[in-house]
Amino acid sequence: MPSPFIDLARQLADAGRRFDHRGWVLGTSGNFSAVVNQDPLRLAITPSGAWKGELAAADILEIDEACVVLDGRSGRPSAEAPLHVEIVRQRAAAAVLHTHSLWGTVLSDRYAADGGVAIEGYEMLKGLEGVATHLHREWIPILENDQHMDRLAGVVRRTLSSQPACHAFLLRRHGLYTWGKTLPEAVRHVEIMEFLLEAVGRTAHRSNDGGHQDPC
Amino acid sequence: MPSPFIDLARQLADAGRRFDHRGWVLGTSGNFSAVVNQDPLRLAITPSGAWKGELAAADILEIDEACVVLDGRSGRPSAEAPLHVEIVRQRAAAAVLHTHSLWGTVLSDRYAADGGVAIEGYEMLKGLEGVATHLHREWIPILENDQHMDRLAGVVRRTLSSQPACHAFLLRRHGLYTWGKTLPEAVRHVEIMEFLLEAVGRTAHRSNDGGHQDPC
Amino acid sequence: MPSPFIDLARQLADAGRRFDHRGWVLGTSGNFSAVVNQDPLRLAITPSGAWKGELAAADILEIDEACVVLDGRSGRPSAEAPLHVEIVRQRAAAAVLHTHSLWGTVLSDRYAADGGVAIEGYEMLKGLEGVATHLHREWIPILENDQHMDRLAGVVRRTLSSQPACHAFLLRRHGLYTWGKTLPEAVRHVEIMEFLLEAVGRTAHRSNDGGHQDPC
Amino acid sequence: MPSPFIDLARQLADAGRRFDHRGWVLGTSGNFSAVVNQDPLRLAITPSGAWKGELAAADILEIDEACVVLDGRSGRPSAEAPLHVEIVRQRAAAAVLHTHSLWGTVLSDRYAADGGVAIEGYEMLKGLEGVATHLHREWIPILENDQHMDRLAGVVRRTLSSQPACHAFLLRRHGLYTWGKTLPEAVRHVEIMEFLLEAVGRTAHRSNDGGHQDPC
After folding, report:
1. I need a labelling partner for D170 at 20 to 30 A (CA). Which of A94, A128, B145, C168 fits?
2. How many CA atoms lie within 13 A of B9 on its CB side?
3. Are B27 and A191 inside 8 Å of each other by CB?
4. Which residues in chain B are contacts of C173 at CB distance < 8 A?
């Protein structure tokens, strides 16, 4: 029987191949984590600078809540590990996935002045945990990007705390963060969000031309 | 010799891989069925919440006309099973396929006020059963999305009954339903429709800019 | 040693997988041929209604100049076989490939009133046989689509005869025909043309918005 | 233990498959090199006219600084080999990669009058060697395309000399050149640049419609 860590590490590597195929983690972008243990907190997390389409389970690192690598291994966890820890705490998430798609990047910029993107009326919204109807209105906050991870983790904390219903957020010109109560749920949330962002991106475009449609 | 059910189950799983590759069934969206027996009606159908790119034949369920799973198996059929049963009845179809593509979603919204999209003049239309010339005019009805499956099944019944020539319909901001007299014919109809929707989507866009083209 | 027919049949099947991956032959669209013998003319050609991504060499048919299947085999050659024969004659081509891409379809309609698309200034043009500089101006004629194959073959003959320099033509709202002195050259011409059509398609779009660019 | 040449040849072939999957080297376009030895200079380089998705290590050629093939092999190196030699000298690069993507081609034309494209504010910029913040402003020079390789090599030399910070340049309507201190770094630079060019391409488009956004 594989240990929980190995099993999660394999699933994180699988997610990497899936997202790489879609072009959502080009150039070693993106990072993923899954909770190995809640208390004390132990996270399986992708290493810094790895190609997500070529990850092996052996590449995945185990860190504690201070983002220190356990077991004396030499790798360096993703620089954004503090955001993963913050999200796990705020949402009791079992997995956190960060992708870096074209449409996520473009929309995070297009709607930055509004502070977020609202998406409603799409059947695909039902793929988000707890959503039972396409009439649901999902607000995806957009946070200014920041190289100071502790400061950014604070912004993430306050955002998730003040917006308890949101399933994801965007970092401006950076990408998407989403999560789930299981790793497959988090993977599903990535696919749902990336689809919706592209749908809004292409619809809004038209709306600007013709003026008869409000995309969000 | 494989039973008809197993053979159809394998073909449904193959269709899932094909459509997943194209990005038409992201995030466990979409659902597929094929007729195992006409009278009494028995359908092979995809389970609720499955990744369509990773389906195995063993994941496929068999249901009756009331959408009850046979053989005591524990899975839950797609929530949209009543629509499949309705389409099989109205069209004497051997297979029903529902995809959830970007362009299907975008166009189902763009043309919702018109009640449908008309497509004509494309050679690709000849891929639709019974169509012999690109001059054919295909009307794809757009139905308002609805979480009440029985009510929506009624709308589907009335739509198909009043529009006997249509090969497919769109649910608004939801996706495409098409069917065929065989499962391969239904797969072909999906590819034809998805192609045409994207072609119209990109052409209409231009038309709006330049004003010299009526896409439908 | 494989016979010339078998070897060409395998290469045609390989081309099918390549183009299917790109989405250029959806829904059994497209057809391909290669010359097995020049005099009397013998063509290896794809059968009608086949999925191009799943072709086996055994699916390929051998026809004569009247498009009659040889060797008593039961398949039906592509309905557009007369166009292949015409192109082989007019251009002394060793292979003829017809794809059905999104951008080929969209551009064949956008520029139909001009009778063709002119493409110049692109390095990619050097991939066309006999072209040594990006300053080359390639004219791609657009022919009205027609279900009468003999009549359309006549239009193809007159077009190729009057425009001896062109490497390809478009059928309106139908797709691309190109060819080569070898089968790999014809495959290369498909990829070059599909790239150029998409580049022009996306550039022209912008030009219409901003008015500062003449795409062809 | 494989020789350095064989090892690099395999990595170049791997890069070819990766970029072919993305559609960045259609129709035998693109060319790649890696430094086998610095003094005297020896480059492993792709041959002229090869499909980049089907390269074997045995197809890769070894050339000297005059672009002469060593070891009496009969192949012909890429016609753009002099540009590779020039870049290796100017940047002390270990690898040089030239892709030919849709968006690289479109943007190299759209911004030709400005002499280049400026990209700033994107997290993805941190994937470029030596860049530590998304606030970085990257200038990608655009050079007029030229069939005279010696003359073009001179333009490349002067451009890289006068712009010591740039990580890449575009040839107009031709494609992207980038490089790295290792071959994996060069591969990462390709993916970063192609992503950024598409992001700018899609954002600038919108900007032109709405006027409220300056993409560079």
Report:
1. C168
2. 17
3. yes
4. 121-123, 134
